[in-house]
Design brief:
Layout: E1 2-8, E2 11-19, E3 25-35, H1 40-54, H2 73-84, H3 90-109, H4 119-131, H5 136-155, H6 182-191, H7 198-207, H8 211-215, E4 222-223, E5 228-231, E6 234-240, E7 243-249, E8 259-262, H9 265-285, H10 308-321, H11 331-342, H12 347-354, H13 359-366, H14 371-384, H15 397-406, H16 433-441, H17 453-466, H18 471-486
Antiparallel strand pairs: 1-2, 2-3, 4-5, 5-8, 6-7
Helix pairs in contact: 2-3, 4-5, 6-15, 7-11, 12-13
């Protein structure tokens, strides 16, 4: 049985595909009542419950505590989260429960019942949050919980409508990621030499890892023969019933988060040395060594897993001690993206490198950094209209050189040699000049006149200036210009 979302007349519907008793394929459409705009995540959550209910699985239900259905809304939320626990990841359950404590307190103090709750009550609560110094993001989190809880009450006929569905979702301002440029990152690396978390911070900056992905890295995910690292496990820290817990998960944030990355030589050597050190520590400390985390890469001298919060707090202190601009640990991931953009890597490749679920996510977060693509468009239009453009392209030569210094031998993407390769697929920095020449040689469309490296680079630069993505497009343009010249038209 499968479920999928579709839209009709501006509303989300869940389409369930199944087989009846005679084996015939059938579909059932279920209305969600959600507007198609800005409600995809809520619709996906609702879809899972609808499919589970249709498949005969247990769907969380909450019954009022009295025949008059006059349960306080806050009490309903507290009851709902315990019943919904079975369908939530532990980290999600813990986060919801912590927030519900404060949401319930607000509504119960005002005597608002589940049956008497109105859209105005909910909207007033969001205003109260912002008036008391809470962020728009806090309002958004509260909205997700309230709407999800009320949807269950609506579907189980406790309330006739979901009042949260009529409330405008708090709109967060566009997020603009902070990051270190390549000079700042080099300064940071110089300052952290000898630090106990040096290698972890460097790997975060190079691979653009999330904190959970870094802390969840396991030895069996590193292939020293094939020189690859697979991101397929995570560790998060959360507070459950007042106690901090480390939660280990094989389920990643999204499907794209599971990805295989090239292991560069410098990091390979460092990781092999780290593994040898851990083996020595196991022999040295014997029974005092914690064997529960023997599969994990990032453990201390006694074998205990590195606490994610410790990693974050130490990073903040490291920046302060060295007088560096304050950024969050997660913004090392953004710094990785900024380096890739500065070196001309496409948004699609950055999406795959960072493990975003969709390229729209990548483009939305980093659009303000992608100056080069806008410049190519401006140059092209300027040439078409016969004008000149005074704005010069960002100089990435320095960024490339420093990137090479930071990560010797780094390759953004391994290139398959079984088919012609487009220009945008050539790694930014090969291990050596010979390898780069071999990769360039695989491009079958390069003409005989352009078989030298210098000529190739010149053609590539001109192609970029005109805004073409592949050599085929560039050569088509050159052919067009030749024909145009023969017919006596002025070149543009």
């Amino acid at each position: 049985m499968k479920g999928r979302l579709t839209t009709k007349n501006g509303k989300y519907y869940v389409v369930i595909s199944y087989q009846d008793d005679s084996g015939r394929n059938k579909q059932k459409w279920v209305a969600t009542g959600l507007d198609a705009k800005n409600n995809k995540r809520a619709a996906e959550e609702l879809m899972r419950g609808i499919v589970a209910e249709f498949d005969g699985e247990k769907v969380p239900t909450v019954k009022a505590q009295s025949t008059d259905n006059d349960m306080l809304f806050g009490d309903y939320l507290i009851e709902w989260i315990e019943i919904a626990k079975q369908n939530l990841q532990l980290s999600t359950y813990a986060a919801y429960k912590n927030k519900i404590k404060y949401i319930a307190e607000y509504f119960n103090e005002r005597g608002i019942t589940l049956q008497g709750l109105t859209p105005v009550d909910i909207q007033t609560y969001y205003k109260w949050l912002t008036d008391n110094g809470k962020t728009i993001q806090a309002c958004t989190h509260a909205h997700v919980i309230i709407r999800r809880a009320l949807e269950i009450a609506y579907r189980t006929d406790i309330i006739p409508v979901n009042p949260a569905a009529k409330v405008q979702k708090p709109k967060s301002p566009k997020y603009e990621a902070k990051y270190y440029d390549i000079k700042q990152l080099k300064t940071l690396f110089d300052c952290m030499q000898g630090d106990r978390f040096e290698l972890m911070y460097k790997m975060t900056a190079f691979y653009g890892l999330r904190r959970s992905e870094l802390c969840g890295m396991q030895w069996n995910s590193i292939d020293f023969e094939k020189n690859t690292i697979t991101i397929n496990h995570s560790v998060v820290q959360t507070c459950v019933d007042g106690k901090l817990q480390l939660i280990k998960k094989d389920i990643m944030k999204n499907v794209s988060s599971k990805r295989t990355m090239p292991l560069i030589p410098d990091l390979k050597d460092a990781l092999q040395n780290l593994r040898t050190k851990q083996e020595n520590n196991r022999r040295l400390y014997s029974n005092g060594y914690d064997m529960r985390y023997i599969d994990y890469v990032w453990v201390d001298d006694l074998g205990k897993l590195i606490n994610p919060n410790t990693l974050t707090c130490h990073f903040k202190s490291l920046l302060a001690q060295n007088g560096l601009p304050p950024i969050r640990f997660h913004e090392l991931r953004h710094s990785c993206a900024s380096l890739l953009i500065a070196c001309g890597v496409s948004m699609k490749e950055i999406q795959e490198w960072l493990g975003h679920s969709a390229i729209s996510t990548t483009a939305d977060i980093y659009s303000h950094l992608n100056f080069s693509s806008k410049l190519n468009v401006a140059n092209t239009l300027s040439n078409v209209f016969g004008g000149t453009l005074d704005v010069k392209a960002q100089d990435t030569s320095e960024a490339r050189a420093l990137l090479s210094t930071l990560f010797k031998g780094a390759e953004h993407k391994q290139v398959e040699q079984t088919a012609p390769v487009e220009v945008e697929d050539i790694p930014l920095a090969a291990d050596d000049e010979t390898e780069q020449i071999e990769q360039i040689a695989t491009i079958q469309t390069v003409s005989a006149e352009s078989d030298s490296i210098a000529e190739y680079k010149k053609a590539k630069a001109e192609m970029a200036r005109l805004g073409f993505e592949t050599l085929d497009e560039y050569f088509d343009y050159m052919e067009f210009m030749k024909v145009k010249a023969k017919r006596g038209y002025a070149a543009t």
